[in-house]
Specification:
This protein has helices at residues 2-13, 18-29, 35-43, 46-55, 73-76, and strands at residues 57-60, 68-71. It is mainly α and 86 residues long. It has a domain at 2-51. The protein has a two-stranded antiparallel sheet. Strand 1 and strand 2 (68-71) form a beta hairpin. Residues 58-63 and 76-81 have low confidence and may be disordered. GO terms for molecular function: phosphatase activity. InterPro entries: Prot-tyrosine_phosphatase-like, Siw14-like.
């Protein structure tokens, strides 16, 4: 039950206790419940996902600008000024 695994990992990200995550998974997975899925959810590292989500943040280009877009960390680094040739 792959959707259940995804939801279980989301619940861990939401700081649910593991027993509640498993209970919800078993309830909705029914006969499709698998021990390997439970093991996957148990060992899923939410810190890795949190770091990824924290690295992608909404930032606004320019103070008071009406243009807003999602910037990635690489785009957020200041670029060296370009010198025009004489």
């Amino acid at each position: 039950h792959r959707t259940g695994c995804l939801v279980g990992c989301l619940r861990k990200l939401q700081n649910w206790c593991l027993s509640s995550v498993f209970e919800e998974y078993r309830h909705f997975a029914g006969l499709k419940s698998r021990d390997t899925d439970l093991k996957f959810m148990e060992t899923f590292n939410v810190m890795c996902l949190r770091q990824c989500l924290y690295s992608i943040i909404y930032q606004y280009q320019g103070y008071g600008s009406k243009k807003r877009r999602l910037l990635y960390r690489e785009e957020n680094l200041q670029k060296l000024p370009q010198v025009s040739p004489i």
